[in-house]
Design a protein that fits this description.
This protein is an alpha/beta fold. It has 24 helices and 22 strands.
């Protein structure tokens, strides 16, 4: 049996030191969840390291705790928050180079650290950082700082404010901005700005464009854990706290602790100690969709975040876009590098020596091709054999006929196989976002459209009733096309669907005018746009499109029987393909050469475009996104792909079990 209990340090350094010593001297305390403020956390590092006590999900975002292996971070660090600031600027202005930024920060070391990160990230993106104004700890108003802001607006054209501070100080700044009539400039700040009280106590004419970067969704989201989060707050006697990001952070930390204790017990014959728990934390953890999936396998930091603001209808904090939309801006550069764990997945000898995989000329298959070409799976004692599969239905047929062991497929295609009575399962994620996307023929019925870039509803209105090319009739591409039309308010039956096959057939069909648009995948996306055959009115890969299509588009699948009879074989395959994905991220030029060899007919420019347009979607952890898959299950049910709903635990297996 285990229990939670708390020590209140009153946000005081001396009290914090006393409370920490008390906890550490109690040998039954095996870990800490949350730990004071930045100063208190930094001073605690030596004592925590000496006692080997882990701190799970600390709220600190400063550099020093990144450098300690006792701190397992799952909230965006200041370096990450500055990168996401650039992401907001990019979305707001089309390019971050158009951002002109003034920082307003609390006069403490963490304020200087945050301002420095914002300056570095903004200038690296080509934007302008004009300077930093500091707010004293004991000030009663921020008039002086706002006068400086107005001067910077007049002199330099400042169009964004980077804000740091405690809620009280942030309220002073926002109230002073409103009083000065500065209400048209977006304010993007640290996780502390994602505080409900700031929006409740500050003028709405400023807070309606104010955001705080945070890493945890609240109960008014569509996360799988939203209802459980609310239930927790109600049972604890804190109704309404489930609408607060920080409460969600604490809830997820407790859930991670629970998973880690179970894992430590399983790995050590029930012996859960500080040492075994700290070791067990060096792994992957589910967050019920309230944050990004956690992967502390090789590092103590799991960067994730989005800008949050208040939804006044529910009183809860909501992200301006999904976490995935800002992942590409996270550069992983910090003043102190996160700890790198020397970790080797303990996998037994493989039960089989030959792995047959479905291969196709697509970006989604590149990790498999490179796993083979680089000898990564061979190093695990397994030879790879490619079997050509030209579509999702062909993948399914090969897996059902036992012609292959492993298939990359869309989750809904896999669900369709299960619906037909075949017990196939997903065991890893291959692509975190979409690999399917839309391109519109410049020679078809809609050669241009009067829609803003990214306005998918406007684009679908223009395309309604035309002819769309799909890889295969009734398969994933057609279902996505139908969902786009359906979500935009149109009858999918009014549109004509033509099977155009893979990239070459799709491009030829658009060039000849046989189809007006296509739902396809690389190289059928970059090639037609680079050659002028087609254009892209919006991007599913970038997060455009309806909520019904918010799910990971490619998962690695196999039969349940194989995971039961040869679990190590499957684990080795998953580990080797993850190594290939990491190699692709770290070796751009060499990967482009391989893409040119396999996908672009030797065209290096096209290969580079394919790489740059898709590398961010390649999974970094392989962990299956529970919330995303549950959304896909709902999508598959709505599209008639499956006859009745399925649970996540029915369709996915955890290789670490």
């Amino acid at each position: 049996m285990w229990e939670f209990f708390a020590e209140d340090d009153g946000y005081n350094a001396e009290k914090s030191a006393i409370a920490l010593t008390k906890l550490i001297e109690d040998e039954e305390v095996i870990a800490l969840v949350d730990l004071g403020g930045s100063g208190q956390a930094a001073q605690a590092i030596p004592e925590l390291e000496a006692a080997n006590v882990a701190v799970i999900g600390p709220p600190q975002t400063i550099d020093p705790t990144l450098g300690s292996g006792q701190f397992f971070h799952n909230i965006a660090a200041y370096g990450d928050q500055a990168d996401i600031f650039v992401g907001v600027a990019t979305k707001r202005f089309g390019d971050a180079s158009n951002a002109v930024v003034l920082g307003i920060v609390l006069e403490v070391p963490s304020g200087t650290e945050y301002a420095t990160y914002v300056q570095d990230s903004v200038t690296a993106a080509g934007g302008t950082y004009v300077g930093t104004e500091y707010v004293g700890l004991r000030v009663q108003e921020a008039t002086a700082q706002i006068l400086k802001l107005q001067k910077a607006i007049d002199q330099y054209g400042v169009n964004m404010v980077a804000l740091h501070g405690a809620p009280y100080h942030n309220e002073l700044v926002l109230k002073a901005m409103s009083a000065a009539g500065i209400t048209e400039i977006p304010v993007v700040g640290i996780h502390g700005v994602a505080s409900n009280s700031i929006y409740e106590n500050s003028p709405e004419d400023v807070t309606d464009d104010t955001y705080g970067v945070h890493s945890f969704k609240t109960s008014n989201s569509d996360a799988a854990g939203a209802s459980e989060l609310k239930r927790c707050a109600d049972l604890a006697g804190y109704p309404g706290e489930d609408l607060v990001n920080n409460f969600s952070h604490g809830f997820v930390n407790s859930y991670i602790l629970h998973q880690a204790i179970v894992k430590a017990a399983e790995q050590n014959s029930g012996n859960v100690t500080r040492a075994t728990l700290t070791k067990a934390l060096q792994g992957k953890f589910d967050t019920m969709g309230l944050s990004c999936n956690i992967d502390w396998t090789t590092s103590n930091h799991n960067p994730c975040g989005a800008p949050f603001t208040m939804d006044r209808a529910t009183g809860g904090m909501v992200p301006d876009g999904e976490f995935s939309e800002y992942a590409e801006f996270l550069d992983g550069v910090y003043g102190i590098d996160p700890v790198v764990f020397e970790y080797e997945l303990a996998i037994g000898d493989p039960e089989r020596s030959l792995a047959r995989f479905c291969d196709s000329p697509s970006f989604g298959s590149m990790a498999e091709k490179l796993t083979r070409d680089l000898g990564l799976l061979e190093a695990h004692g397994i030879t790879m054999e490619a079997v050509q599969c030209s579509s999702g239905p062909a993948n399914a047929a090969a897996l059902i006929a036992d012609e292959v062991d492993f298939v990359n497929n869309t989750p809904d295609n896999m669900l369709g196989i299960r619906n037909a009575g075949f017990d196939v399962v997903m065991f890893a994620q291959s692509i975190d976002y979409h690999f399917f996307d839309i391109v519109v023929s410049t020679g078809g019925a809609v050669p241009t459209m009067d829609c803003d870039q990214g306005d998918w509803e406007c684009a679908m209105a223009a395309l309604n009733g035309t002819t769309v090319g799909v890889v295969a009739r009734g398969a994933a591409a057609e279902q996505i096309a139908r969902q786009l039309l359906d979500s935009a308010g149109f009858d999918p039956e009014d549109t004509t669907y033509v099977a155009t096959g893979l990239a070459a057939g799709s491009i030829a069909a658009m060039a000849s005018g046989e189809v007006d648009w296509c739902i396809c995948f690389e190289p059928g996306l970059s090639t037609p746009t680079l050659t002028g055959v087609a254009y892209s009115p919006f991007s599913l890969r970038a997060g455009d499109g309806p909520d019904a299509l918010k799910w990971p588009s490619l998962v690695r699948t196999t039969s349940r029987v194989l995971t039961q009879e040869a679990p190590n074989f499957v684990r080795h395959y998953s580990a080797a393909t993850s190594e290939a994905a990491e190699w692709m991220r770290n070796n751009r030029d060499e990967t482009i050469d391989k893409i040119a060899e396999y996908l672009s007919g030797g065209d290096a420019d096209l290969a580079a475009a394919i790489y740059d347009n898709n590398i961010a979607s390649l999974t970094k952890t392989g962990v299956i996104d529970r919330a995303g898959i549950e959304n896909n299950i709902a999508y598959a049910l709505g599209r008639g792909i499956i006859a009745e709903t399925m649970s996540f635990d029915d369709v996915a297996v955890n290789l670490e079990d």
